Amino acid sequence: MTTNAPKSIIVIFGATGDLANRKLYPSIYRLYRTGKLSEDFAVVGVARRPLTNDEFQNNVKQSVNHFQDQEVDHDTFASHFHYHPFDVTDIKSYQKLNTLLNTLEDEYHTEGNRIFYLAMAPNFFGTIAANLKSEGLTTTHGWKRLVIEKPFGHDFESAKELNDQLRQAFTEDQIYRIDHYLGKEMVQNIEVIRFANAMFEPLWNNQFISNIQITSSEILGVEDRGRYYESSGALRDMVQNHMLQMMALLAMEPPIKLTTDEIRSEKVKVLRALKPITEDEVDNYFVRGQYDRGIVNGEEVNGYRDSNSVDPSSNTETFVSGKLIINNFRWAGVPFYIRTGKRMKQKSTEIIIQFKDLPMNLYYDKGENIHPNLLVIRIQPDEGVTLHLNAKKGDFGSTSTPIKLNYNNDSKDKMNTPEAYEFLLYDCMRGDSTNFTHWDEVALSWKYVDVISNAWNNKSASQFPNYESGSNGPKDSDALLQKDGFHWWAVSQEE
Ligand code: BG6
């Protein structure tokens, strides 16, 4: 184990929930396995359900039992986990939790360092933060951090109210707002590709780039999240956070240094430069969709309106595509197209940078099919970078053919490539908040998105459902690009 591994207690609110079991415990395990966590760590699981420590530890072992490493004893790993049945509204629960934390701090030598991770429904975020403070849990001799899952509010006003509540108990520096896309290996790679290669940055502007496309499509529908999704829709669920964050990383200026503050301040500038649209203009820039029944993987599937806890005449969008205009010197005139949807043809997140054509291309004159140069950053499921070029066809003429330079990030070490939550938890323990969203980013994103949701709320979507499950979304989404003379690239489908 490394000697400078961070020491802390992680208190997980929502310890019996899906996120904790599917993402957090496996991530803590992987950190432990690779020595990123010292033996001096403890996890306190907090939830309503009355579980014993043994039952809780068994749940944790269950969630990591697919890892079969000789060197890690699952019982020893699980022994770091403790359970505390909890009522978020009862002050006594907090007092007892504090006593438990004080005892565990002595046992595990965690030096008073505490992470409070809110992995639960957001209704109680404000209450929990206030009670943590009033009952003295945040008065610790070590550091304290609050990790908070999305949704961070429902619109700008509610996000601000929540932020104000949190700020009563934690400073901005102590608040780690999760956007799990920022923990993805290839999203983090955007900065390296841009700022560590002499060949891209000089071209990274409106002189050489014609448009940028960011797509995140899913095959799954809303499954059992109908209740949450009805009040969210794809706009709040994906665009306000993940899509705008990827856009900001692609568009930001090189920071002066790779520090948290410098990077965040460049991202904030991009969000500030987003051309505001009015409610009346929304239809010119954004398309909404809702999936109908269809065929996915050879099986017939239901439409969104037939899902559990969904209104049979719901207006909620399960698909959004849009055109973002960044009004600054670098990007004026370059549309950033975004597209995200459920129940689409494939699970894929990718970014396509389409370069402008040469002012004069000799091969066009020969009537050849010249492919524009594309830089494709493949975020998931396969990770990598592909550069689409034109090269000579292997024959006697001087004809050209599209070729691809491909880098696949599927190292033999794939098993050890950290997952998003693993990166993010570790960053939080080390006090690095670069890959978490600052309040200024959240606020600007909501303000942008609120105009669109207001426009959509005020006008029912009479055309819903408007795309078949298993398709590429509604036709209007194709038309959005066609009117600018572009089309969506579906490059990973071609591979
Ligand atoms: C979450 C959304 O933030 O991101 C989900 O709430 C969505 O609706 C998920 O399915 C997609 O994440 P990923 O990592 O699978 O692309």
Keywords:
Dihydrodipicolinate Reductase, domain 2; Rossmann fold; binds 6-O-phosphono-beta-D-glucopyranose; 16 helices; 495 residues; 2 domains; 8-stranded mixed sheet; alpha/beta
Overview of this protein structure:
With 495 residues, the chain is an alpha/beta fold. The protein folds into two domains: 142 residues, Rossmann fold (3-Layer(aba) Sandwich); 312 residues, Dihydrodipicolinate Reductase, domain 2, CATH 3.30.360. It is built from 16 helices and 17 strands. An eight-stranded mixed β-sheet has the order 8-11-12-7-13-14-15-16, sandwiched between helices. β9 and β10 form a beta hairpin. α9 crosses α10. It is globular. The mean pLDDT is 93. 6-O-phosphono-beta-D-glucopyranose (BG6) binds next to loops.
Brief write-up:
The protein is of the alpha/beta class. 35% of the residues lie in helices and 20% in strands.
